[in-house]
Write a structure and sequence with these properties.
Elements (H helix, E strand, L loop, with lengths): L3 E6 L19 E2 L3 E2 H11 L4 E5 L5 H7 L13 E4 L15 H5 L2 H6 L4 E6 L2 E2 L4 H11 L3 E6 L2 E9 H9 L9 H7 L5 E5 L5 E2 L3 H10 L3 H7 L17 E2 L4 E3 L2 E2 L4 E2 L2 E3 L2 E2 L4 E2 L4 E3 L2 E2 L4 E2 L4 E3 L1 E3 L4 E2 L4 E3 L6 E2 L5 E2 L6 E5 L11 H15 L3 E7 L2 H7 L4 E10 L2 E12 L2 E7 L15 H15 L8 E5 L6 H6 L7 E6 L7 E3 L1 H5 L11 E3 H8 L2 E4 L2 H6 L3 H4 L3 H6 L4 E3 L28 H11 L9 E9 L5 H11 L5 E9 L1 H13 L4 E4 L7 H7 L2 E4 L9 H7 L3 E5 L2 H6 L13 E3 L4 H17 L1 H13 L4 H16 L1
Parallel strand pairs: 1-4, 1-6, 4-5, 8-10, 12-15, 13-16, 14-17, 15-18, 16-19, 17-20, 18-21, 19-22, 20-23, 21-24, 22-25, 23-26, 24-27, 28-29, 28-33, 29-32, 33-34, 34-37, 37-38, 39-40, 39-42, 40-41, 42-43, 43-44
Antiparallel strand pairs: 2-3, 6-9, 7-11, 8-9, 30-31, 31-32, 35-36
Helix pairs in contact: 10-27, 19-22, 20-21, 20-25
The structure holds adenosine-5'-diphosphate.
The site of adenosine-5'-diphosphate has 16 residues, from helix 10, strand 39 and strand 40.
Length: 802
């Protein structure tokens, strides 16, 4: 038998890692008895792996306490055994996986060990896996690296020869690959193999998965796939008296740990050690951790109560499976309070939209409301909203606002839209404009808006948190600090750092803010927001990481680094109305099972674009603002070359900068049969392109999140993107060998790479139709709905509020 050493990544890498239950991932208690690290270590023991290194995260003392000498997992030995290898720099950043650099810090561990192979895995999986089987499969395949997947879900688990691993560790300084994951993604010379693990598997990346896996274990069938008699999961044993059931107890399909005293109703739940459930209480679909006390007549559904939670009598707690109600250790819960969130922004769909921001405010607020949140949105009442919505919008009240030593009158209008309470702030002096942005006094307009938002707090019940967006609302925290609402929690989300709102510093005086330390006679709205909001976030985990570097974060990168601990990355999603099955705008509706009908939309687009109706035409579509960010320099450098292939067509819908518009026009003149431009906003319904094109191009220099690629995927139009920001987080690279991927990705902001990738896509399209259909199927199945993002925001709000 070939020997293996194992590396366990206990650096929990979800961007919500600072929340309850995510504090110390390697040590999350599981099922009242088990901790996630036990799954990793027991699987090692059962596979005869005798040399294991854990790379911990944060304060790892509890992990150390729990694993002890490793005796339970047969790892207390003189030679080899269990090692916890902390980072040299204790402040490590959440990235995706342990880096080679961190391994290099413990290079002696790797050079001293005698094992021939290495397994790298993460301590966040509930499963029972035989690594010996993975290893034989790996050796048989002849590949360099084997990645373990379960039903196409990647499990951050790899097997490889130690020599290869050592090469990467030793070269950490000179190679572009930071983690084994990067190697698998991008190293050109690595031969990859995929091992498909069968049996119950769930990665615990959030509260939903955590609760779900606990409840799944109540299902005999699923439980047996994890807790096997011949390959047990070991954990720390404690002794408590047996559980007791009193007169009123009724228990169905639940796990009741030792020491618990039950006098209520428990259905489909996991009850930890020494928990007390009193008379009249009902607990359903929940996980109650040890030593909690649930008093009389409480009702609890879909909740995870951390250790020693006390739920007072008559309390109603209702979460949903996808967003369970969470408590922190020792929390006392009385009646559940519905989160009251105020969103303040410069635009929101369907009322007013200039770009992706409006889409997000509209769909996020709706999805928050659907998930048990009390949502209010404040936006300015622009002329365009007045023109199209006056009839349905209700006038509420007037108010006066002091700004720049003058008194301005505003009027508030309201509208209830799908459970969301919208309030429009009408000011003849500032918002009665044709456009949303682009006025000389924009900084005054939005500073005034911020002042209105804070003043209006007097007229509403208290909000638990104000969620502000981009520079237009970035002064709200500092105005709050200078008002009687000081202390109100805020979350500032950066949708695009490129736009910062720079203006004369006398805005501060006009707002009546004192004690402001001026750097010079200009101020930067976003910078002030970043320094004063309670927490900050951005719209994808990768963009969040990128902003720390000057290339992306510019002069604000240091400000971002300073707030690293308060900074989160939550990927945006698209509204569920983007759906080819229900889309009334497209030529012919279609779904994955009727994908032939996508072709009718292609024909229709060909007609609109005046393209020849060629059978094997390859249409590259784009719907985009035409600005530097979106990669138009790369496009203009290479499209003449790309279009030498007469089967390739390019259709673009967009508006933007003059310099690009002219150059694009010239490109169209040179290739009149193969290029079609619609240079307006909505000159053509963007849906025609999403539905009719074969591929969707987004070669962005940077992309905070990007919605276009997600919409395109939903319509089975494969994205071609640069590996940056949200593009990196939402598109999976095409890989012919492992049969994976739902799009095409290039790494560097380099026009030659763009061309190669477009040509690669064309070749797959032309020569590998089966592969192409599989990619379409994977793209269309991707769940990028905003609902998913909303649930993450709910968790984050909660952590901030508490
Ligand atoms: P950004 O917000 O940086 O512009 P996103 O990809 O996040 O980029 O969002 C762009 C949104 O605006 C998409 O929904 C896209 O379809 C839409 N869009 C962009 N340009 C146009 C246009 N000219 N006409 C219609 N819709 C457009």
């Amino acid at each position: 038998m070939n020997e293996m050493l194992a590396i366990i990544d206990s650096t929990f890498k979800d961007n919500l890692d600072q929340l309850t239950l995510h504090r110390m991932p390697g040590a999350i208690p599981f099922g009242g008895k088990f901790r996630l690290i036990d799954f990793a270590l027991s699987n090692m023991k059962n596979s005869y792996i005798t040399n294991v290194a854990i790379f911990p995260y944060g304060n790892y003392r509890s992990l150390q306490d729990h694993v002890g000498s490793g005796r339970r997992y047969d790892l207390d030995r003189r030679k080899d055994g269990l090692f916890i290898l902390p980072p040299k720099n204790t402040f490590i950043l959440p990235g995706d996986m342990i880096t080679f650099q961190r391994m290099y810090e413990h290079i002696e561990y790797f050079t001293r060990s005698t094992q021939e192979y290495a397994v790298i895995t993460a301590a966040i999986i509930v499963w029972n896996i035989d690594f010996n089987d993975v290893l034989s499969n790996h050796i048989k395949s002849g590949a360099d690296i084997t990645e373990v997947v379960h039903q196409n879900i990647r499990l951050k688990t790899f097997v490889l020869h130690k020599k290869i691993l050592l090469d990467y560790i030793e070269g950490y300084d000179s190679l572009e690959y930071k983690t084994i994951h990067d190697v698998v993604e991008s190293a050109p010379n690595m031969i990859l193999n995929v091992y498909k693990h069968q049996g119950y598997t769930r990665t615990i990346t959030d509260a939903f998965n955590y609760l779900k896996s606990n409840l799944d274990m109540l299902d005999f069938n699923k439980g047996q796939q994890v807790y096997k008699a011949d390959a047990p999961i070991y954990s720390k044993e404690k002794t408590s008296p047996p559980s007791r059931y009193l007169n009123n107890a009724k228990v169905e399909n639940s796990m009741i740990s030792a020491g618990a005293i039950i006098d209520g109703v428990v259905i489909n739940s996991v009850i930890g050690r020494d928990v007390i459930v009193k008379k009249g209480t009902i607990i359903k679909n929940s996980y109650i951790m040890s030593n909690s006390i649930i008093e009389e007549n409480a009702h609890i559904e879909y909740a995870i109560l951390d250790k020693q939670t006390v739920v007072k009598e008559n309390t109603l707690i209702t979460g949903v499976l996808r967003a369970p109600y969470l408590t922190q250790k020792e929390q006392v819960v009385t009646t559940q309070h519905k989160q009251r969130i105020l969103l303040a922004a410069s635009e929101s769909y369907p009322f007013i939209k200039t770009g992706g921001l409006a889409d997000i405010i509209g769909s996020l607020s709706r999805n928050l409301a659907r998930n048990n949140t009390d949502v209010t949105v404040f936006i300015p009442y622009y002329k365009k909203i007045k023109d199209s919505f006056t009839e349905s919008i209700k006038s509420e009240f007037t108010k006066t606002i002091a700004y720049d030593d003058k008194i301005y009158k505003i009027r508030i209008y309201s509208y209830r839209y799908k459970k969301v309470k919208y309030y429009f702030i009408d000011s003849f002096d500032f918002f009665d404009t044709e456009r949303v942005y682009g006025y000389e006094n924009d900084t005054d307009r939005f500073a005034f808006f911020n002042k209105c938002v804070v003043s209006l707090l007097d007229d509403f019940d208290t909000f638990d948190l104000i969620h502000i967006h981009d520079w237009h609302t970035s002064l709200i925290p500092i105005i709050l600090d200078n008002s009687q609402h000081k202390g109100t929690k805020t979350l500032l989300t950066i949708h695009n750092l490129e736009y910062q709102g720079k203006g004369k510093s006398d805005v501060i005086r006009k707002l009546g803010i004192e004690n402001f330390i001026f750097k010079d006679d200009m101020i930067n709205f976003l910078e002030i927001g970043l320094n004063t909001a309670t927490k900050i976030s951005t719209v994808s985990p990768t963009y969040k990481e990128e902003l720390r570097y000057e290339y992306y974060g510019g002069h604000l990168s240091q400000t971002i680094v300073n707030r690293e601990r308060d900074f989160y990355g939550i990927l945006n999603g698209i509204s569920s109305s983007w759906n080819p099955e229900t889309d009334k705008l497209i030529h012919t509706k279609y779904s994955l099972s009727k994908i032939e009908d996508k072709f009718k939309n292609k024909r229709f687009l060909q007609k609109l674009a005046n393209f020849e109706q060629k059978e094997d035409a390859f249409i590259i579509g784009m719907v985009s603002r035409i600005v530097e960010q979106k990669g138009f320099d790369l496009i203009l450098q290479q499209f003449d070359k790309i279009l030498e292939n007469e089967n390739i067509y390019f259709v673009l819908l967009g508006t933007g900068e003059e310099r690009y518009l002219d150059a694009l026009q010239e490109l169209e003149n040179r290739h009149p049969n193969n290029v079609s431009l619609f240079l307006k906003y909505d000159a053509l319904v963007p849906n025609y392109i999403y539905a009719g094109a074969d591929v969707f191009l987004m070669p962005s220099r940077f992309e905070p999140c990007g919605l276009g690629q997600m919409i395109a995927m939903k319509y089975g139009t494969l994205p071609i993107v640069r590996s940056t920001g949200g593009l990196k987080d939402s598109v999976e690279r095409y890989d012919s060998f492992t049969d994976k991927g739902n799009g095409f990705i290039f790494n560097n902001y380099d026009s030659y790479e763009l061309r190669q990738t477009v040509e690669q896509a064309y070749i797959v399209y032309k020569n590998r139709p089966t592969m192409w259909s599989k990619m379409i199927s994977r793209a269309m199945k991707e769940d990028n709905t905003v609902r998913k993002s909303a649930l993450r925001y709910i968790e984050l709000y909660k952590a901030i509020i508490e």
